[in-house]
Design a protein that fits this description.
elongated, 89 residues, mainly alpha
């Protein structure tokens, strides 16, 4: 498939087309429903952007979430408790 695109660019260059014209032909052909494909592409890109922002907001919300529930007492474990555990007798 990539080889076909390369050949398409080579043929377009031989015909004297610019890169912009070749891309326009490849993405939006001159078919009867070209406007429909453009609209569909815009909608899909919009949905991808919305999904990315939603996941970003969700991740930031999870990062800022409290570790302890409200009203709970905090842990009383200290570093010296671990030092006592790993001392060699």
């Amino acid at each position: 498939m990539i080889g076909d695109k390369i050949k398409f660019y080579e043929v377009g260059k031989e015909l004297g087309l610019t890169k912009k014209e070749i891309n326009q032909i490849m993405i939006f052909d001159n078919s009867k429903h070209a406007y429909l494909w453009r609209l569909l592409l815009i909608v899909v890109m919009f949905l991808i952007i919305i999904g990315w922002f939603n996941s970003l907001i969700f991740i930031v919300g999870k990062i800022n979430e409290n570790v302890y529930p409200s009203g709970a007492l905090y842990s009383t474990v200290k570093l010296r408790d671990f030092k006592k555990k790993f001392q060699v007798i």
